[in-house]
Amino acid sequence: MDPTNKPQGLSPHYSLYQREVFREGGEHGKLPHFSVHPEELAESTKKKLNDRSYFYANSNAGLGWTDRANREAFYRWRIIPRMLVDTNTRDLTTSIFGHKIPAPIMFAPIGINKLYYPTGELVPAKIAGELGLPYCLSTASSQPIEAVAEANDAGAAVKNESNSVHSYDGPNGGNAQSPRFFQLYMGHDDEITISLLERAWKSGFDVCMLTVDTWQLGWRPTDINIANYAFYYPGQVGNELGTSDPVFMKKHGEELKQDSGKWIDSSVWHGKAHTWEKMPWLIQTWKRISGGRPFVIKGIQNAQDALKAYEVGCEGIVVTNHAGRQVDGAVGSLEMLPEIADAVGDKMTIIFDSGIRTGSDVFKALALGAHVVEVGRLFVWGMAHEGEAGCRHVMKSLLADLDITMTVAGYQSAKDLDRSALRYNQSGIPPAAVDHARL
């Protein structure tokens, strides 16, 4: 808490953000405008948005059992604190695909960000740049690839104050450039796929992440209830990658005038599954375009698929169930992480996604074998409240939470975390799940 009594560490002093908030309140009477308690933040977001906007990122498949399983899995793993450990200097830094980053957290790909703030993806892209964290852009973005890259560059160029909790010097000195990932929803027109990948590479997105669990949307009753498919409504947000793509527009520009869903229905959630046989072509195509940069598959939930991804040439995987939005009654992602890590953790980069809400959640995922975690709903909820300021507040709060958790639990470095830091509890579910079950 005392900034004058902490040695310079390898990672930013994220924990000081709590002190900053306390001092602003105590000395100037300035309080945060919204709660960053995850459950309270989710509730207040409902009041900030209309139903169509809120449910786009928050609807779950079926009864929501998979979303619940994600949170239950975190509840069952318990941290074992250690005492009298020198945590005065902590190291949260890690490397991912050749990029050194200040903390093992990245922005997950979420589409149609204009539902949450008028400038959409430009907000989280900028904040990711400021924080030096990886940003991943969705194919269902409501901003063109090139505009998002410019926003990310602008964030990275922000001059950091010397005592700022998000200042970070890269390995060669100066502010570190946050890496950019492009998340691909792949249609069945290879020319359009190649065009998207070429645009992404030219805009500085140097890791390709293919999502394989969402060839079509899962059955989501809360979306069904309000016919919640933004791409068909006036304004048609979410088509921007298509309408800004020269190949797609040359082929389908005229059709788009009569069919507003042409982009999303043919190129994003088209309902026609690809198979492993297509992966070598896609990986080789990305390698040719990018000069050999990494390829990642998102949607892995078992060790066999993880090994198959390795065999076909992937450098990384995202262990995720799409936050419970695709298969109702499926396993929680954290349940599967240990055996996936045992199978490929020494061969591939493992990114964990689904259910991250707190610094303790990040801690547990890292201890169970993830190298980096993705955060999605949290940053969307923050930007829904206050745009850049809200997104920044939520992400800096999560980083502070992780930093403080490491300190008070007695772990100096993220690299020190393994399963010995946790204890599994077979019984019990979170109180919120109990309450939900009674309704």
Automatic annotation (TrEMBL):
GO terms for molecular function: FMN binding; oxidoreductase activity. Glyoxylate binds at residues 56, 185, 220, 322, 325. The keyword ATP-binding does not apply. Its cofactor is FMN. The active site is at 322 (proton acceptor). SUPFAM superfamilies: FMN-linked oxidoreductases. Residues 30-427 form the FMN hydroxy acid dehydrogenase domain. Pfam families: FMN_dh. FMN binds at residues 109-111, 138, 183, 211, 298, 353-357, 376-377. InterPro entries: Aldolase_TIM, Alpha-hydoxy_acid_DH_FMN, FMN-dep_DH, FMN_HAD. Keywords: Flavoprotein, FMN, Oxidoreductase. Belongs to the FMN-dependent alpha-hydroxy acid dehydrogenase family. This is FMN-dependent alpha-hydroxy acid dehydrogenase.
